[in-house]
Amino acid sequence: MPSTFERLHDAIHNQALLLEAYDGVLKELFAKPFWNVGGDVAMQRIVWTDGRAARTEDRESFGSRGLYIWGVANRPLYIGIARKQSLKKRFNRYIWGKRSQCKLAKEFELKIITDGIDGFPPEIRERYRRQFRGGKARLEHAVQFAKEGIDRIWFALLSHHNPKEIVALEEPLVQVAESWNQRKGFRSLLNDRFNPHKIRPRNFMATELTREMATTVGLQGNKF
After folding, report:
1. Angle in degrees, 0-180, between the axes of helices 137-148 and 122-131, rounded to the nearest 10
2. How far is CA 47 from CA 71, 89, 170, in A?
3. How many angstroms separate the CA atoms of 187 and 30, rounded?
4. Exposure letters 92-117 (e unless 16+ CB within 10 A, then b)
5. Given Cys at both, which of 36, 62, 97, 134 links 88, Cβ 3.0 to 4.6 Å?
6. How many structural domains comprise the chain?
7. Could you give phi then psi for residue 45, rounded to 5 degrees?
8. Looking at the DSSP assignment, which residues form a beta bridge with residue 156?
């Protein structure tokens, strides 16, 4: 039986089929309760504050490469990949690190909800400016996590062993996931790279799913 990742990867050359597969994965994900301490994390949403416990319980999944989804309630916020490092190492930027994205959103929640990036102390803004050559994406994402309600933020892991297949899936999946959000009336994904609403895509011929495609897979309107 194919894994969740394989179900998506098998459809990368057909946008309508990939949308259908992605929609099916989300339906399964949202139908399950949030992960609770005990057992593996496959196809479960994990509230970020339970991340360390989940890592301890399922070392195999976190020790693998793969794809991950960040979200809130029944809405994806961001899709990322870990191809050169394990998901465990990748999540240093999100949870484990002292100044990780989720910890920053939690610590400065009220201030950044009001003032955005300017709500972070100057030393944090300066550190990120130096470390990421002026890039603000991680701080901007922390602000959005706070605005969405940091205590409700979750992630899900789709572990996979093949880096080439992980890379191959990223671009078409981000584009389909963005279309899914738009057709549900949700805000745009936080992804900048490959997002058809933020940049012009390079390889995928269609940036928007046609109404016929959406009808085929039952995505007319918000059904969740």
Report:
1. 130
2. 9, 18, 23
3. 18
4. eebbbeeebbbbbbbbbbeebbeebe
5. 62
6. 1
7. -80, 135
8. 69
In the β-sheet with 65-72, what is the strand arrangement from edge to edge?
A: 46-47, 153-160, 65-72, 75-82
Beta strands at 75-82 and 153-160: parallel, antiparallel or unpaired:
unpaired
3-state secondary structure 111-165: HHHHHHHHHCCHHHHHHHHHHCCCCCHHHHHHHHHHHHCHHHEEEEEEEECCHHH
**Residue-number span of the structural domain to which 196 is assigned:** 4-204
Q: Which amino acid is at 220?
A: Q
The pLDDT tens digits along the chain (224 residues) read: 899 999 999 999 999 999 999 999 999 999 999 999 888 999 999 999 999 999 999 999 999 999 999 999 999 999 999 999 999 999 999 999 989 999 999 999 999 999 999 999 999 999 988 888 778 899 999 999 999 999 999 999 999 999 999 999 999 999 999 999 999 999 999 998 877 766 544 444 344 444 444 555 556 544 33
DSSP output for 166-193: HHHHHHHHHHHHHHHHHHTTPPPPS--T
Alpha-carbon torsion, ordered 48, 50, 54, 57, to 10 deg: 170
Q: Could you tell me if residue 215 is inside a domain? A: no
pTM above 0.85, yes or no: yes
In a domain, 80, yes or no: yes
